[in-house]
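In keeping with the milestone schedule agreed at the kick-off meeting, the structural modelling team has produced records for the first pair of proteins. Each record is given below as a sequence line and a structure-token line. The laboratory manager (R.T.) confirmed that both were archived under the project's standard naming scheme.
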Amino acid sequence: MLYIVLSASIHGEEGEQHSSCERVIFLLPSASASQVASGWSATALRCFNLLGKSSSKESHVHAHATEAMAEPAYTIPAFRQRSADETEEYQRVTTHVAKGLAVIQEELHRMRISTKAQVESLAIQREVQEMMTKKVDLYDEVHKMPDFLVALRPHTVWEKTPVKLFCTVEGKPRPVVKWYKGGVPVDPLSAPGKYKIESKYGVHSLIISRCVVSDTAEYSAVATNPHGTATSKAKVIVKRPAGAGESCHLGLVPHLTEIHPSKLEVTLLDRFSVSFGVEGGSISLVCTMVVVPDLPNVPPHAQWYRDDKLLKPGKHAEMSVGGGLARLKLPHLAKDDEGLYTLRIFTKDGTAEHSAYLFVSDAAPSAAGAPGAPMSVKAYDINSDYVLVAWKPPNTVNEAAITGYFVDRCEAGSDHWVQCNDAPVKVCKYPVHGLSVGHSYHFRVRAVNSAGMSRPSRKSDKVTALDAAEHERLQVIKIEGKYDIVIKDDELEGVPSAPGQVIATRNTKSSVFVQWDPPKHLKHLVGYYIDGRAVGSKEWFPCNNKPFKHTRFVVHGLTPGETYVFRVQAVNVYGLSDESQESSPIAAEPALGGGFQYATPSAPFGITMLSCDGSSMTIAWKSPKHCGGSKVNAYYVSERNADSSHWKEVNLTAIKERVCTVEHLTEGTFYEFKVQAANLAGVGLPSTPSTPMKCEAWTMHEPGPPYDLSFSEVRSHSLVLLWKAPVYTGASAVTGYLVEMAKKGSSEFVALNHDAVNHRYLQVSGLEEGESYVFKVCAVNGSGHGKHSQLSEPVCAKALPGTKEIVAGVDEETGDIFLSLEACEICETSKFVWSKNYKPIGDCPRVAVTTEGRTSRMTFTNPDKDDLGRYSVVVTDTDGVSASHTLAEDALNTMLELSHAIRHPIIPLKHGLNYEILEKGHVRFWLQAYKLSPDVSYRFIVNDKEVTSGEGHKISHDVSTGIIEMTVDLFTRANEGTYTVQIHDGKAKAQTSLVLVGDVFKAALKEAEFQRKEHIRKQGPHFSKYLYFTVTEDCTVMLECKVANVKKETSFHWYKEDEELVPETPPNVMSGACAIPIPLFSRKDHGIYKAVLNDDRGKDTSVLDISGQVFDDIINAIAHIAGASASELVLQCTPEGIRLQCYMNYYTEEMKTVWKHKESKIASSEKMRIGGTTEMAWMQICDPSDKEKGHYTIEISDGEQTYTRTFDLSGQAYTDAYEEYLRLKAAAFAEKNRGRVVGGLPDVVTIMEEKSLSLTCTVWGEPTPEVIWFKNEQEVASSEHTKITFDGGKFASLVINKVTPDDSGKYSINVRNKYGGEFVEITVSVYKHGEQIPEPKLGHHAKPATPVATPVPPKSPAPHSKTPTPTPKAHTPASSMKSPTPASTPVPKSPTPTPKSHTPTPKSPTPTPKSHTPTPKSPTPTRSVKSPTPPRFMKSPTPPRK
């Protein structure tokens, strides 16, 4: 047999024990000794790596253990295999060893508790008292050789009882303590369980358990550091009770250890956790406890420590114990208070302890970017006239670098601070001089950077300026009457170098463990600052605010799941080093462990080959039968040539799965493999080496073997077999699997399925209760059956005691449909793993899994047909607790009906949650229930946060109406989101939600802002109704608006296109309404119209854009009135044709008017002309013919309604109209061709005698007219005095040479042909030379005639005359004169009906035909005179208007 003893403990640098692993004794058969020894070195290293870094003592132990384990052992011959009986015996012994290991661990735990003797409490109390009387205010950087504050004491104890030797030692750096017995080092590994060495809170102890007489000796503790060695010795005498044998008497009087007076049993309950404070605040650390017996006058003895230093009650630390509480209050927090706080309470069995870290962050700086306050201000080298003040620098993360420090002093009892240095000092120490002998002082320090001054530090303890010698002096020299520090040679280098590699590992869900390598150049290191940063952020945050002395630190207060990186800076009196390199990113997630004592897992087994390609082999194995209490999280594989005894590790990093591909093998060589499993406790024993496996490439077309056969739902007559797909698939994909079964020990296998199944599980039934079976599986592809799997482990067809099946049901409270299983057995590490069709469900939104105690429930979120199937659950770390249930459609429908019935008691709502915008921009959210009781309760939840009635929100309800409402006073962008109301009324519930996001929210926000602006607008003069239009009965468009809150001084103005409009009637704002008319509305009235209100209270504007749709709406409104007022179509004949006219209140071409002939739309053309005036619409048929006979219609549309008027132009109506057209056409032709004076004659001529008068005009007619001149109605004949000419049938002249008064009179010209003529009169006045020019007659002002040359028309035979002719006024209107010729054509009657007398006669729309008569250039204007011929235009009687 081979005994292997392993003992390890992990300690901090200062002796604080972090975790421990008790001694483990492995008892193994000799047959496996070589296997264990050959692979032990790697196993031991893995154990120590999992346990963490050890101290120097543990390194020593590790070295001894490694050396002992490396001793040569018996080597098993190659290819030697155990028989089945040997394997079973080996497994039985392994099981026995595991059970024995658990018993030993329990015994060791009991021994550790029992060794907490009363003498420990008494010794620690004395140590504390001695330390309290001794002043230890030495500066942290002062080096000192070891010195025992509490020395070892001699002990006399009885045999088989424990004894504890302890001492307290100080020194800088911290000494290392080694224990000796009779001058020989004490080795805990030499006698497992005999010795235990501890170091806590500066107390070093050696515990000897179950003393025997041979333990009587002189024991010594040797403390060593670079500055020296100190030794403390004490004797231990072990006495044997009388009758038990001879005593060992060494000449010393037996003396039993004094018992501590405390007999109280104390159990800590609620403990203070990691805490966070801020400078200037206060915090309390509280532990609750149960004390037996609970004596009011005898409270437990409690001590508080900070960073292993005992705290004393004072103004900065208030302590109290009693009433089931131990409390430490820090009323005035400073960064000096940051550290690890420990509560130690002395109990009957020893001590009860608890520790947690307190972080103190900087208070708000006095100026943005200013540094934090310095800390740990202390006075050294105290003298009668100076004191050396030293401190520690603050951490600077995102602030500017510190440029220096100011030191202040204050006499004790005063609040007046005096600055000691004029310029900032750059190092963290400064000599203060000028003190008064015998006076006491306090000191404080402030840091300075480019942004400003920091807050002052906590003031130092009181210092009296005396020439005291008890304090160690720092060397100071005097220069020019002042004191300066002497800088040693090794201090000239300044700040330390940057720390080395930073490694972060998981700790808890909100903390990370950070460790780093110290700087290469320490330079009187004070400590370290650790900074953190979330990945993706640029801002660093401080993890500690007080320099931390060790190279490992737990960062607390992190966001769970967030990923961080960390960096470290070293600190000394000169400042901070450069930052270290950043650590690798790490997520804040919990690590394994948690205070549970775990064992290593047992060995894996069943190694099998899954595939081989000639240079690599894929192997698999089975899980250990015992996991050791924690989940197996790693596997390590080793391989060796079958002809060699040397094992080679395959993987250095952990393998998570139970499959591994071993590469770089030699083809044709046989290899053996072994596997080790690891968990939180360490690496377990290696498996038995596999059978030799040949590295030969697989080339068969069939698939390789399936593997990892496992069982579920084992019952008395059935079970479920599960397996994994083969790694080697062959020439084609796997199409199914065949399963065979045999009874244990039998070689006769029975096929369970003749047709291959395409899934990797099989329900096996028909088993015999209590019988054991084995199974094997082979895969099938297109080439055939592949290799069989390794035989499964034997499984007994017997259900576990108390096995229960999955229950399907509906929750009576919530109506949830669920599947539930109550496990018959469970352990602390067990988990319920649910599957559907034997595929793990995991995080699926369709189901939710909850576990409470032994029961796990899977609840369906929204069950439907997709949830149908077979569900199973397996409880891990048990002996196969599992069950399954098939959810069928009928069962699901039944449960859905029951779920609905349970959930039915809801509050029926008449209206769900809705909103409305109130005035002032308030938003009201409301809902209405059919009925509410007075006991109703409800909650408004906005974006997952409950809103209560208060500032900005008003929440109320009305039971009578069932309305629940919330009014939001100020609705802004922050109010976007989901609004939910949850109502509870007895057992009934209701919930309604309103999603206000995106466009819906924007519309609500826009309306709220509009109403808010409207409210502000209405505080001054405003439009209560903005500009709008109306149309009057006479089709006048009115722009109107209504105004409010106006006064007499309020002005009102109209604008069109920014040009002011001034209506005939000024607007009267006091009437509350203003309007402006737009008569005869048409497209010219397009534009932007604006109305403006203004007074001293404000201004308001209303705008109406009359274009686009607004313009169309106005036209439609006009058409509505005009169409209703339209008359029937009337006939009007003209010389051009037949016209149909429709009279109405108003017509404009923008109106939608359609003319139709025989239901066909008429387009305006030369044949059919369409037009109108403001009073009517017309359609004219030019040069009509029989084709134009028929039914004519006009349609007037207002967009909604069409008004129709018709006229039947056929039969007699057409005949009469056509005759009238021909008559008017002939009359027009006669009028056009009759004789007429085109122009050139004046109305009045005044001329002086002896002058020549020429009256010349242009005449026209077809045929050429006859021209006759008259004087005083007597025809004038041509003579020498009076000459008459008519040239070319166009130019007629009357020339009087040397006029006399007798020539005065009324002259006229008569021009006519067969179609008619024209008669024009001229008045001539002759005055003598020197007389006053006579007044012109006929009311016209005439200019005196000026002698002019008579115009000669073209081709005229008459000679030019030099006689002057009068020039009439160009723009003198023509006089209307009666023609002596009667009209030759009578005026015919119109065939159109006679209109009523009250109807006004409209103007004729008939256009004036163009005259083909040439108009000569003449100095006389054209006059209009009455013609003896019929008029050119005939007005038709106006029909009555409707």
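The second protein of the pair:
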Amino acid sequence: MAGQTTNTNTNPAQQQTHQQHKRKCRDLGRRLIPARLLLGVLVAISLLAPALALQSPPDKNFSGDNRKPAFRNCAGYAPKVKEEQSENTYVLTVQADDPDPDQTIRYSLVQSPFERPKFFIHPTSGVITTTHTFDRDEPIHEKFVFVTVQATDNGLPPLDDVCTFNVTIEDINDNAPAFNKARYDESMSENAQPDAVVMSISASDFDDGNNSLVEYEILRERDFQYFKIDKESGIIYLKRSIDKRPGQSYAIIVRAYNVVDPPQDAQIEVRIRVVESSIKPPSFVNPIDTPIYLKENLKNFTHPIATLRAVSNMPDKPEVIFELNTGRTEQTNSKNTFVFNQIGNEVTISLGKTLDYEAITDYTLTMIVRNTHELGTEHQIKIQVEDVNDNIPYYTEVKSGTILENEPPGTPVMQVRAFDMDGTAANNIVSFELADNREYFTIDPNTGNITALTTFDREERDFYNVKVIASDNSPSSLFDNGEPNRGHQVFRIAIGDKNDHKPHFQQDRYLAERLLEDANTNTEVIEVKAEDEDNASQILYSIESGNVGDAFKIGLKTGKITVNQKLDYETITEYELKVRAFDGIYDDYTTVIIKIEDVNDNPPVFKQDYSVTILEETTYDDCILTVEAYDPDIKDRNAEQHIVYSIHQNDGNRWSIDNSGCLRLLTTLDRDPPNGHKNWQVLIKANDEDGVGTSVSAVKEVTITLKDINDNAPFLVNEMPVYWPENRNPGLVVQLQANDYDDTPGAGNFTFGIDSEASADIKTKFSMDGDYLHANVQFDREAQKEYFIPIRISDSGVPRQSAVSILHLVIGDVNDNAMSEGSSRIFIYNYKGEAPETDIGRVFVDDLDDWDLEDKYFEWKDLPHDQFRLNPSTGMITMLLHTAEGEYELSFVVTEESMFVPRHSVDAYVTVVVRELPEEAVDKSGSIRFINVTKEEFISVPRDIQSPEALSLKDRLQLSLSKLFNTSVSNVDVFTVLQNENRTLDVRYSAHGSPYYAPEKLNGIVAQNQQRLENELDLQMLMVNIDECLIERFKCEESCTNELHKSSVPYMIYSNTTSFVGVNAFVQAQCVCEAPLMRPCLNGGSPRFGENDVCDCIDGFTGPHCELVSVAFYGSGYAFYQPIAGCNNTQISLEITPQIDEGLILYLGPLNFNPLLPISDFLSLELDNGYPVLTVDYGSGAIRIRHQHIKMVADRSYQLDIILQRKSIEMTVDNCRLSTCQTLGAPIGPNEFLNVNAPLQLGGTPVDLEQLGRQLNWTHVPSQKGFFGCVRNLTINEQTYNLGMPSYFRNIDSGCQQSVAVAFSFGIDRNFIIAIIVCLALLMIILLAVVVQKKQKNGWHEKDIDDIRETIINYEDEGGGERDTEYDLNVLRSQPYEEKLYKDPYALQSSMRDPNEIPDIADFLGDKKENCDRDVGATTVDDVRHYAYEGDGNSDGSLSSLASCTDDGDLNFDYLSNFGPRFRKLADMYGEEPSDTDSNVDDDQGWRI
């Protein structure tokens, strides 16, 4: 160790802490600065002050001396930290002092770069905290930790001091006692008397000191009253006489606990078996009672260290078995440090592993001997480990020190630290000596302090490598030479520099020419450099004079001169700067000449302000104004100024100007609203130097004032509509008011009259008197509700102007008609069943009056309904919370009374249909935007064609969609009808078989059949798949993504006999690129537990979310996938394996031509003679990119990467980044985004691209020929596509697995494959015909031959009646069940059941059962044994019980949807078959029962 101690029994960790030594005090008297030198320094500082005031503050560490910092109390640092404390636990605050003034000390920890830090020190405060949780106990054994702290000042050079101390880890009671046996099963004689020793029990505690003391007690449970225990030793005694017979046993619970608070404890069950008195336990012969001492370096693993002998005490059975107990701690042999070997009745104990005194100092071994009666005796052996000198001293991480030059002998240099990890003071005291350089340095053998023996000169030698030897204090056990262990380390001692030389510039004069006067601030001009032989000197630069206007600044430490202020050649052309270099004591000066060069930095100047007044709406052939400007850089104003004039922001191309400054008017100007202005502003731009090179410009505003002419006709400004009540006598209706945009004096006197072109009806019913409109007759609102009256208004200006304005007159209603009975229908979509209380519509009665609500009173005809509430004043019906799905018939009584109508009451009937809509239906919905239709027109049936068969536009759309999607009307939901501006209407719908169809399928089919739907509905579609991002820059300037918003709060559309309550669902544009969301696991995959966005997938589904990532095409197919969003940067990646060298791989573009919205954007990727060709049209022209480097051949896979950006388009093949592999292009025209709302199509397209290209004027039309090959791993913007599971497709192979593709990969002709398939099909048909004929001819009775069907089992058993083994399933076949299936395409249209309609489910099943019971071909009841089997002979032709007792034909399940929502899944599964357009030989969408 580093110091001597007299206490040899001290703990090594504590001992090392006390062995720290203080550094020697420095003799500050020797370092006092001489008065003359101090005076010189003060004078230098005073001279430097002005320069420093202009520059950034220099470091304050310039002095004639530089001394190292020193820790205040390094030897006294002895911190302690409790184990198991959390990180950031406070440890200690260290502090070092530096005798030099204005020094900042920074602290750091010194440790190996490979060592995990356990502490953190704050660099300025010196506070040390933990970064590690310590564990003092087994198996970690963190009892103490050495810490080395370094304190470094900011001198030149920086000097440091180190301090090493020991952090003691204190124990806490964090471990419960552990019994040294896993179980205790002992025996005692039946003759045992009270107070006899029964057994002993022991437990160990990993903790230290008092925390490891264990005491014992017997819990008051079971047989506790028979025994007692010594709480300190764990010896169990018999407390009372035994009352059990041999073979029986006692059980007690022993608790071991700590004696400190809070206590930790453990419990164990002890079982004590009673044995006969003749049965005695074995005993040890001459047991070892004294400790055994072993050196820790003992390596003899074969020599016994102890031998024990035992006798069984059973003469007839002398055999015994020994066992060395394995305890719970290392001290009790938990790691098998000792092993045993039994020979007869003798056992030897030997060493099993090496010993280490520094880890374990003593062991307690428990040897157990048992006889054949399983009676045992224990004996404990104590083993003491003795320390040997087996550790070589090691040094801390400090490897270098510093001493300044010219320091006197005896100056401290550094302190080295070394430690010895031996456990006793006899082996771990370290002393030091120098191996070399003894003429320059000396070392204190106890403390390791190195001091100088001479004065050093850095210019002569700047470092020394000094070798130090650290020796411990006893002969080594590692080397057999009688010498102590020694550690060697070379330390580098650097000679620090002092400032004893003057700096000097490399040049006396520096020149910087051609510095442009418009140079930016901080532009580097020149760098001056001064040199100093002293490395410790920091040279500071300053500008002393010549810096006019503070034009320049100099880097304080770099000498770089940069521009500080704006320069002006016209003010000063040359600067002469005096620059100083100062090292803190000495200085030097140089001169810097900077020459400024003129640039064209003055813009032209207009000679005056300009304005002019002209007539509006008038053209001028000559200049309306002439402007003139000059260049201030040209001193001669009469010289050519080289000015070029132009119009700045010439919107509308209204003006022109030539280089003479002549401003001309190209179009007439309007003074009057709404598009005109009284004053127009023109910005004239003047560029000097003829507008080229370094041209500078100026802009001048020219004001043009317009003089008004009478060129506008007056117009009506009355608030409209104007109301006139019906039944009122003729009279004054309204005084007309007009306005005129002109402000010509006298033109505001208006004259009014009914236009001569007005109809005779208008002229008869209305007349004008000045500016008053009169009604000539009484009006009846029920005859006509409104009039549009043309009024001609003339002004009195010159020339006279007149125009016709339309006055909208509404005839006000008077309740003069009695109402009659009425009925209405309300359809409600309840989104997820979460609709709150909702107004759903008013009670309707047939009444010609429509402003008479206040004359009516509404009430329930019978009792109020539980699910609805009525407002008696308004007739509004409110659906309450939790209203179930279904159809409700509501009856009301409406009472009316007014001045013209006597009091009377009529009945009103309202049918309310509530349908619950799942979230999936909205998420997978399609959408259409109609034009020129209102929401009321869409949901209602016109009153003039009211009939049971009449359908609203909504119902007609629902019916048409069901035909398109080949599903029942009830499987189609039109659930959103939202009105927009400009008479556009947004409609959302869903359709399902099982499950809901994807939106790309819905929108794709509708888009292909848009013209057909428009003809059926007599409506125009503005957009299929509503996309707010489709019009470029309409919603967003850059990236744009549609986001679907959904609400559980419904909205109502009311239209007399029809009301509709829909789901509030709409899309909004989000100005971001579509980010990959956390997607669900597809195709049977499941989320991985504990990980986000990770799936466990079924074999074959290899995508990140279990996508099937491949699909094959055969030249005549296609597949639809979800469209993409318009992004600034769209990245498309896919892998293809072609079989032929031609075909359309990918198409993303419109599915049809819509003249109302002719969006022409598209992208296509195709193969042309084996080369990939990419065509992209952003809507303003197509760019065609053909890759010519790699030709694609059959049966080989290629990777294609496409990047679409606003200004560039890139295609790369096989990740090749060479210029020959990358194909680049730029979009044509101003558009910058690919705006497409149609599905992405792979393998081909059903669209006639030639016709579509002609309609959209495409310059390049993609190939119509389909792709033949496999497509894999399609990703778009990091989203992997589920290629094998498209929503809509034709002729594909999911997973690229079919044999045709394989055959083609071997080069077999396609026609040959088709021929083989046809032959196989014919062979199967012939075979089937033969089998059927043979069966009909021979009977193939099951009893005569082995039946191959699983439903027939021939065996002899009883219990089935007279025909035990005759289990012919045909006995269940009944006569065909004749029924008339319900085929109404719109089930909700009629409220009454048709007589031929299928009954409800209960009636249906009852009829089925009765039909089976009436079957005359059925055998007796006791023969029915075969219901448990299934097969071809079974009348249960399907697993569905609904198919029982039917004929052999296909069963029609169209009526299942009428059984209610609980049968919807069956209806989806067994419902209508797909049409031919959806079903083909290559897909599985169509199937049959």
